[in-house]
Recover the amino acids of this structure.
């Protein structure tokens, strides 16, 4: 492997136009270096998160228990610093059971399930592309296509840099 041509620290003071004018090998080096830095930061963040949980997890759990809650934010003191410990609630619903409950509300109770649950219709893009033309045309007015953030990869065709 060759010495890197350019690293991310070298582009901090460059304008976007100057970066865009770099050669493909230089851009490839930047992408590689950025990927390496992101992975290193993720590793550091994971270790720090684990260390904070090891140090404060039990105390935060005790504070939540004293407050009569399983999740949420608690605050406590540590040597003159306020520790704010948050344990977010992540709720997941079994879709089949929700559909069943919605049908009971509709059929047995005579109520509108939309008063209790969100009902989201969705179409798989691969299915849409394979539908017969009249079906696609029927659904086309309900379809909006948006784009995400562009991303690029640069790979050396020969494998060496």
């Amino acid at each position: 492997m060759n010495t890197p041509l350019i690293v991310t620290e070298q582009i901090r003071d460059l304008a976007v136009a100057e970066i865009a004018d770099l050669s493909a090998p230089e851009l490839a080096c930047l992408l590689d270096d950025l990927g390496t830095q992101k992975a290193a930061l993720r590793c550091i963040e994971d270790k720090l998160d684990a260390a904070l949980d090891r140090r404060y997890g039990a105390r935060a759990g005790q504070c939540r228990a004293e407050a009569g809650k399983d999740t949420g934010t608690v605050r406590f003191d540590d040597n003159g610093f306020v520790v704010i410990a948050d344990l977010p609630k992540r709720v997941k619903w079994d879709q089949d059971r929700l559909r069943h409950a919605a049908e009971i509300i509709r059929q047995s109770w005579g109520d509108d399930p939309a008063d209790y649950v969100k009902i989201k219709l969705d179409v798989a893009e691969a299915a849409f592309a394979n539908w017969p033309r009249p079906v696609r045309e029927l659904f086309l007015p309900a379809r909006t296509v948006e784009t995400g953030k562009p991303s690029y990869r640069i790979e050396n065709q020969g494998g060496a840099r």
